[in-house]
Design a protein that fits this description.
little secondary structure, two-stranded antiparallel sheet
Amino acid sequence: MRIVDLSVALKAGIASDPPSMLPRIKYLDHHDGAKEFMAWFPGLKAEQLPDGEGAAMEQITFTTTTAPISTRRGISPAPRTAASRP
């Protein structure tokens, strides 16, 4: 058996999928992270955080599967379960 890895690293702006399914990454710096922390913990003030900063982070939206399903080659689509339905 031969395995071919078609994966690519996830990064903003990569042309990996159709435009509507491209990954979107919003990068938050430490200043933005402080705002997030203060929203999560009501009453928290920036001066209570180390150097007034929170964690830098990325907010990622991506599509898990974009490969077409072919029934002509005897490949059946996976059955839809209640958990997979919108």
